[in-house]
Amino acid sequence: MVNKKDNETRVGFIQSSFVQPKSKCPYARSVMTHLKPEDTTFTGLEDPLCCHFPTQEKVTTPFTEGMRAFGGPRNKGKRAHAAADLYRYENEALMAVAPGVVLRNLYYFYQDTYALEVLHSGGFVVRYGEMTGEKAPDVSMGKQLKKGQVLGYMGKVNSGCCEAMLHFELFTGEKTGSLTRPGVDIGGVLFNRREDLINPTRYLLKWEKA
Question: What is the tens place of the pLDDT at every residue in 125-135?
Answer without folding.
Answer: 999 999 999 99
